[in-house]
Design goal:
The protein is α/β, with parallel strands linked by helices. It has two domains: about 220 residues, Rossmann fold; about 100 residues, Rossmann fold, CATH 3.40.50.1100. About 45% of the residues lie in helices and about 15% in strands. It has a six-stranded mixed β-sheet with strand order 1-2-10-7-8-9. Strands 5-4-3-6 form a four-stranded parallel β-sheet, sandwiched between helices. β8, α9 and β9 form a beta-alpha-beta unit. α7 packs across α9. The radius of gyration is 19 Å and the shape is globular. The structure holds pyridoxal-5'-phosphate (PLP).
């Protein structure tokens, strides 16, 4: 049986939460894009505008995830990913805001220039390490060991209390459902770029509320879609458990595609560049090179392939990432 929005809100309100994001994020109609492609009505949910540190989906996720770090008495926020990681930037900023130490263990990849996210991560005061790509895992383990030896209690925002990142998008979904009700919108699908958390949180919330909107995830990294759906179902079970929801979601409930990544994570493709330019030039809306431009390319490709027509409504959930643009001028041909 479906639960009500109020009941779901009460379950979320029972969890530790920090107040970081500027919420609710706006919903905007992309009228010129609809006219340009001659297709469905498009809306964008601006999770790129969550406020702190130039925004993005992690700021909402951190309200619940980093609340767990605070509960556990952690004094260091650590993050390890690509040199232009949005999450490293957001981790460093939130650490600064909470008076915690930040450590980034990035990697010396093709975009390890002091621009974009890496510049901002340094500016937020993080201790930055950039080992060679093949040495990154060992460097993370060594950093954690060293911090613990020095008496610190580190919290890795990639992996610790990870389920709370999905829980945060149950909150995001409640916000979206309320905005759709206010605007009289019944979307046929929601498109987004997600590794797992944003996607899983949305689906858990919608199904718990008995709402059957389709959620289409576009992966930023190469992966097997079937294995990804199985992983999403496991995370959904964990998320439902945290919220005390009786919800049986299976791999078949998660639709995601890795077919728009191109050769690798963080590599600009002809389609992602075209999507980035189209949204910039038709709507004055910035996408990012690694995540949202690939999701937009995926959504537009599905429209071209006849999945969606005039009269239908699609919502694009913009997860942020735009500071990385400044490290990608050459890749984008500027
Ligand atoms: C801009 C952007 N979009 C999407 C994602 C994926 O987010 P998640 O896997 O938490 O849903 C990330 C971070 O990994 C990101 O920085």
């Amino acid at each position: 049986m479906a639960i009500t929005r109020e009941e779901l809100r009460e379950r979320l309100d029972g969890l530790p939460r920090l107040q970081l994001a500027a919420l609710p994020t706006p919903m905007e109609k992309l009228e010129r894009l609809s006219a340009h492609v001659g297709g469905p009505d498009f809306w964008v949910k601006r999770e790129d505008l969550t406020g702190v540190a130039m925004g993005g989906n992690k700021i909402r996720e951190f309200e619940f995830q980093i609340a767990q770090a605070v509960e556990r008495g952690c004094d260091v926020l650590l993050h390890a990913a690509a040199a232009q990681s949005n999450q490293s930037r957001q981790t460093a900023a939130v650490a600064a805001k909470l008076g915690l130490k930040a450590v980034m263990v990035g990697r010396r990849d093709a975009h390890a220039t002091d621009q974009g996210n890496l510049l901002l991560t340094r500016l937020f005061g993080a201790e930055v390490h950039l080992p060679e790509v093949e040495e990154q895992s060992a460097a993370v383990a060594a950093q954690i060991e060293e911090l613990v030896r020095a008496g610190h209690k580190p919290f890795n925002t990639s992996s610790d209390a990870r389920v709370f990142r999905a829980v945060a998008y149950v909150d995001g979904a409640l916000e979206l459902v309320a905005q759709c009700a206010d605007a009289g919108i019944e979307p046929d699908a929601i498109y987004l770029c997600s590794g797992a958390y944003t996607h899983v949180g949305l689906v858990v919330a919608l199904r718990a509320l008995g709402i059957d909107w389709r959620v289409v995830g576009i992966s930023p990294s190469p992966r097997d879609d079937v294995a990804a759906a199985e992983g999403h179902a496991d995370l959904a079970a964990e998320c439902a458990g945290v919220l005390g929801l009786e919800l049986a979601l299976a791999a078949g409930d998660f639709e995601s595609y890795a077919g728009f990544v191109g050769p690798d994570y963080g590599v600009v493709t002809d389609e992602s560049r075209a999507a980035l330019e189209l949204l910039a030039q038709q709507e004055g809306l910035l996408l990012d090179p690694s995540y949202t431009s690939k999701a937009m390319a995926g959504m537009l490709s599905h429209v071209r392939d006849g999945w969606w027509q005039k009269g239908q409504t699609l919502i694009f959930l913009h997860t942020g990432g735009t500071p990385a643009l400044f490290a990608y001028a050459e890749d984008l041909g500027y």
